[in-house]
Amino acid sequence: MTCCKSSSTVAAPHPLDPLSTEEVIQTAALVRQDKGEEDFIFNTITLREPSKEIMMAYFGWDKSSPKPAAVEREAFVIIIERPSGNVVEAIVSLTDNKVKTWLKLKDVQPTLTMDEMNEVEAMIVKHPLVAAECAELGITDMSMVYCDPWAIGKHLSIGGERRIMQAFMYYRLSEEDNQYAHPLDFIPIVDVVKNEIIEIERIAPRDSKFKRPTIPMEPHNFYPEFVSDKYRKDVKPIIVQQPEGVSFKVDGNEIDWQKWNLRISFNYREGLVLHNVSYQDGDEKRPLFYRMSLSEMVVPYADPHAPHFRKHAFDVGEYGLGLCTNSLALGCDCLGTIHYFDATFNDHSGRPFVVPNAVCLHEEDHGLLYKHTEYRTGRAHTVRGRRLVISHIVTVANYDYACYWHLYQDGTINYEIKATGEVNTHVLAEDETPGPFGIMVAPQINAQHHQHFFTMRIDPMIDGPNNTIAQVDTQPVDEPVGHPLNLYGNGFYPKTTILKDTIEGQAMANVATARFWKIINENKKNPYSKDPVGFKIVSHSNTPLMAKPGSVVETRAGFASKTLWVTPYQEDQLFAGGFYCNQSNGEDSLPQWTKERKPIVDTDVVMWFTFGVTHLVRVEDFPIMPVEICGFTMKPYNFFTCNPAIDVPPTNKSINKSVHAFEKKEEDACCNEIVTAAA
């Protein structure tokens, strides 16, 4: 999401554009020039977004302030000093070519990087203690030993001041073999700054006569070179084409499609971010959302025994969702006529690197948008809908997450995650059982049950900056059957409750009342319903956090304990698990921000919405997992004066080239003709 041309030929970037490769180089050079040749690594070099106050004037939504003629371009830098491991935050002005601030911090751990993970793995597989552990298991070829370095979560006997990781060990029969079919039974604990092993933990069999398991050597693979001889022979091509080109327009990182307008950006932590989302309603361009992103996620595992209780990965805050993004392949990850955006990051030396095709933009047919058949005449009026898809896919060790924003022609916004990849596995002794906390997906291979929680940060501006959140519960009328007000017992109605403060703004999903929430603007009413204009938010992917209050997981990931949180807008509250989430204790997180009662009515608010899945693993999830889909939807709720997609033209077979599968018929009726039913 950056241009790689020289800065002399490039127009000035938009204030929300991610840093270019030249700006990353400029930032690192300014830091070195200011601080000399100190021994440190560049953990993060990223855009410091301008304040919301400035940008609301820049976008023209705040009429009380003039649009700024220029917005200062700043980089935010996180540095880790060596050998101390101390952390430094710096703000660098790219406009003024200087380091503006330099703040040293203690006892915090920033996001882990791929450089660190590669260093840790290279050290581990060459370490004599690891070789000795492998030799006891009958493994002597260390070139086939691998590890997945994970964040430590919280190690109960090692303080948070040391930057540490835990490494889950695996073996491969060949370079492309599936390592998760051969898990090993020990875990090195590593000091990342010193790049040395602190200790090695063995995972002892629990209900077994054996001291250590044998390592299963049966292959379980899915790459074509292993299984292509078994491929189905009856899969015919499906070709998606847009012979007249796409319906969207792209100007840098700004996207226009149908009546939608928005900007996107991409950063090391959240990955894809949507900015300044609006919808053209007749002659009026109506603001909807200032900023939306996946703020944090957590994947807590079910097994309470050591070391498995430490397996609760914060894939946004601990690893950086953006840093884990894939380079997408045309015709594989995205189908049809595609536009891509690249993403730029930095390595430990401050050098930029580019992930090409990090974000995919395309259109999809989405089936019926609406339809009605006049039964008296047989006339069917059918309009097919399409959606704009903005997506990226990340790989965090074993798991892959495909993340999709969908915009629809009727004003609906949907966010969807498809979880796939490989389930985390643990070796069992020959006579050992996984117990209630997992399932044996192959002989001696235990895949542990777990959950996935995703917390979105949604910064609304529904027809203006001041919004309110309302809770809607559908309930039967109080009067019993036979009462004059409920004579036949069928009465029910929606009960709307305004959430007045940050305590009331903590809520759980409730299937019994078909609960949903509305973001409303009480200063603007729908002319017909007389209700405040708004958008509703609903999800069919609600599941409770199973970890108990006070547990290590719940203390660090308390944001997953509620479906909804509402806070007054604060510039520095971007991440539900806290800015320094890695090895955190939970003191800087969404539950802590909402302990004090603060008003949230008719003001600049942020909605935090959590959805997810409880993954009770199946044998069918191995050796590679079919997608598990979850997400949420936001729909206009008394926002328009009619169906906003009423002006979408119908399609027909001459446009979409639909044909009969097994017979040729030339004179089929189109989607809006009268069809006489056969007798």
Q: Secondary-structure blueprint of this entry?
A:
Layout: H1 21-35, E1 40-47, H2 52-59, E2 74-81, E3 87-93, E4 98-105, H3 114-124, H4 128-136, E5 145-151, E6 164-171, E7 186-191, E8 196-202, H5 224-227, E9 248-251, E10 254-257, E11 260-267, E12 271-281, E13 284-300, E14 312-313, E15 339-346, E16 352-374, E17 379-396, E18 399-408, E19 413-421, E20 425-427, E21 438-442, E22 445-448, E23 450-460, E24 468-476, E25 492-498, E26 516-525, E27 532-538, H6 552-556, E28 564-568, H7 590-593, E29 605-615, E30 625-637, H8 653-656
Antiparallel strand pairs: 1-2, 2-3, 3-4, 5-6, 6-7, 7-8, 9-10, 10-11, 11-12, 12-13, 13-14, 13-23, 15-16, 16-17, 17-18, 18-19, 19-30, 20-22, 21-22, 23-29, 24-25, 24-26, 26-27, 27-30, 28-29
Q: CATH topology of the largest domain, which one? A: Beta-galactosidase, Chain A, domain 5
Number of domains: 2
Strand content: 35-45%
Structural class: mainly beta
CATH superfamily of the largest domain, called what? Copper amine oxidase, catalytic domain
Compute the CA-based radius of gyration: 27 Å
| Global mean pLDDT | 94
The total strand number stands at: 30
CATH architecture of the largest domain: Distorted Sandwich
* Distance linking N and C termini: 60 Å
Main sheet record: 10 strands, antiparallel
CATH C-level class of the largest domain is Mainly Beta
Question: DSSP helix count?
Answer: 8
GO molecular function, one term: quinone binding
Catalytic activity: a primary methyl amine + O2 + H2O = an aldehyde + H2O2 + NH4(+)
Enzyme class: oxidoreductase
Family: Belongs to the copper/topaquinone oxidase family.
